[in-house]
Amino acid sequence: MTVLLRTEGICKAFGGVQALDDCSIEVGQGSIAGLIGPNGSGKTTLFNMITGYGRVDSGNVYLNDTKITNLAPDRVFALGIGRTFQLTRVFSRLTVMENMIVAAHHKERAGQGSGWLRNPFARAGGPATRRRAMELLGFTGIAKLAGDRAETLSYGQRKLLELSYVLIAEPEIILLDEPAGGVNPTLIGTISDRIRELNRQGTTFLIVEHNMEFVMGLCDQVTVLDNGNPVVTGPPDVIRNDHRVLDAYLGIAEEDDDAA
Amino acid sequence: MRPATIWRVVGLVLLVAAAAVIPLAKNVTVTHVGVFVLLYVGSAVAWNIFSGFTGYISLGAAVFFGVGVYTVALLSKHLNLVGGVVFALYPVAGLVAAAVAVPFGLVALRVRRHTFVVVTIAVFFIFQLMAYNFSWTGGATGIFPPFLNWDPNTFDMPFYYTALLIAVGAAVLAWAIWGSRFGLQLRAIRDDEDRARGLGVKTMRVKLAAFVISGFIIGMLGGLYFYFQSEALPEYAFNPFFDLTIALMAFLGGFGTLSGPIFGALLLEPYLGYAQFQISNAYLSEAVLGALFLVVIILLPRGILPTAAEKLTAWRAAWERRSAAPAGAAVGPAGAGPPVDAANTSAAGTGAPGTGSAR
Fold first, then answer.
1. Domain-embedded: residue A258
2. Are A248 and A224 in contact (CB under 8 A)?
3. Which residues are within 8 A (CB) of B265 and not within 5 positions of it... i.e. 6 or more apart?
4. CA distance B85 to chain A (A)
5. In chain B, which residues touch A (CB < 8 A)?
6. B100, pLDDT greater than 90
7. pLDDT of B341 strictly over 60
8. Model confidence at A85: pLDDT above 80
């Protein structure tokens, strides 16, 4: 399996807090990778470092073996890394369709020839973009909300919108930060079905999630972070039974052999 | 076309028609006030293209205005221009103001919110101080244009029509930007700049472009002001009340909407013109302005037009529900809510959201 996304010894401190400490992970092409760990273990910070929302103190990020360390967020996105946020971030005063069009900007422009000859006042979102956006909104099940302002959406619907507009840019890999957090069980089912389907079509995923059922059911490979350092990586059933995971979540157990 | 668009077009046509008829009154006071109204309409619209669309509240627009005033003043002084050629100087004033907007923007747009406001105010005072203290600006005595040997009865007319042209041009430009990809990116920046960046929007470039465009328009209006008022004085060219006034106009009408700044300027500037002549105590009219600002922020934070549109939609929905009720339950809630489906969306997507919000 070829490695699509790789981090190498990333360190990041916020003041005295070492958020990431020699953090190296690998995500294989076409896989669904999970990233778990207790609160404050550095999962979101790692996402931020990969997607350009912060600068690493040391270490490197590679996409397809190309170094992308410390690139600006718009560049990282253009290279094919899409992400969602733990607290969803949509453009609240734009309509759902307009949210999609903002994210489609890159794809759309690529099809329109070069730079300065474009009409700067061309209406946003051509018919092809709108059709594609409606397809994706249908795929995530919020097509009927296309004309509504994003601020009128429920929390779960916003998560789906965020997923939809990341999808319209057709990234190679999507980083999802707690896609199931605060979402009702039915919707969680929808989300995981959609992830599986996209993965079958070739999209790679890296998912941060606290919902163990969700992670274990979805991921091929799970990495456990503790204090900014990956303590163990493996398939879900190995992770489930690894004592280091329990240690990370619950603290070191006094006696760990007699339990069985 | 959607009803909202039709209303907007009808409104604009009526306004322009009214503006074209006003000069027929051949009343010097009316046209004089008219030029000022148009000057403020244009400025408020231009200010809104940057500040309203991006949410970056700039109190440094007077920098562009003053640069426009002094550009034309210096050119007229050194070239002794008196003929119709003075109107050809507007674009020059605009270009110089736009050129000033580039470094101004590159510095100020690195910071956001309150810090941005403070930086723009600081830059404004730097320019005002320069106008007061350099010898080539004429210092506190300013610069006066060569005498225009025009008929005093029709003196205002060319200024009136050129101001109308610039104001209408600015409004059309704002409308064109709003629905374009550029405008959508500006509004995405207003809602969540970092997120927009993460979706590939080159935020600095986009913000700067809007800042420069608004500087160009306001600079042109500054150029107009110089010959119209026959003076370039530091306290009027770089006037702190200029920014407060256009910001208040935009907030009053509807901050970040298309028609709001026009409406606000049309409402407020006649009062200000009146106050200038009728209220002998200048501080009183300024105090009224300040009080009005507070009232708007507290009672109408979104402005008159968006609030009115919302009330109107709610009222119409209630009315339709009531009238639909006897027809049977079959109509149901679908009759009241705006229908949104795939076909409808392609038209409404970039337009005003379905539920009653004015632009």
1. no
2. yes
3. B37, B40, B41, B43, B44, B45, B246, B249, B253
4. 31
5. 176-177, 179-185, 187-188, 190-192, 194-203, 338, 340-342, 344-346, 348-350, 353-355, 357
6. yes
7. no
8. yes
Across the interface, whether the CB atoms of B198 and A94 are under 8 A apart is answered no
Among B187, B345, B355, B359, most A C-beta atoms within 10 A, so best to mutate, is B345
Q: Does A116 touch chain B (CB under 8 A)?
A: no
Residue A77 domain-assigned (yes or no): yes
| B328, pLDDT greater than 60 | no
Number of domains in chain A: 1
Distance CA B90, CA B164 (A): 13
Query: Which residue is it, tokens 């790789």?
Result: A6
Q: What is the dihedral of CA B239, B240, B245, B246, to 10 degrees?
A: 80
Query: All domains of chain B, ordered by start, with CATH?
Result: 25-302 (1.10.3470), 307-348 (no CATH)
Relative orientation angle of helices B89-108 and B61-79, to the nearest 10 degrees: 140
Contact B25/B149 with Cβ under 8 angstroms? no
Query: Two tokens at A31?
Result: 């896989």
Please report whether residue A259 resides in a domain: no
Q: What is the mean pLDDT of residues A150-162?
A: 85
What whole-number distance in Å separates Cα of residue A148 and Cα of residue A95? Answer: 5
- How confident is the model at residue B326, as a pLDDT? 60
Q: Which residues of A touch B313 (CB under 8 A)?
A: none
Shortest Cα–Cα distance, B279 to chain A (Å): 41
- Nearest-Cα residue of chain B relative to residue A146: B345
User: Could you tell me the CATH number of the domain that includes residue A83?
Assistant: 3.40.50.300
B-proximal residues of A, 81-100, CB under 8 Å:
83, 85, 89-95, 97-98
> Which chain B residue lies closest to A135 (C-alpha atoms)?
B342
User: Is A68 a member of any domain?
Assistant: yes
Rounded to an integer, what distance in angstroms lies between the CA atom of residue B89 and that of residue B153? 23
- Phi first, then psi, for residue A212 (nearest 5°) are -65, -40
Residues of chain A positioned with their CB less than 8 A from the CB of B340: 144-148
A149 contacts chain B (CB < 8 A): yes
Instruction: Give how far A226 is from chain B: nearest CA, Å.
Output: 27
What is the spatial distance between Cα A211 and Cα A221, in angstroms, rounded to a whole number? 15
Domain of residue A112, residue span: 3-250
Mean pLDDT of chain A: 82
The pTM is what? 0.80
Asked whether residue B220 carries a pLDDT value surpassing 90, the answer given is yes
Matching residue, tokens 């006034």: B245
Provide the CB-side half-sphere exposure for A114 (13 A, CA): 0
- Most confident by average pLDDT, A38-47, A233-242, B167-176: B167-176
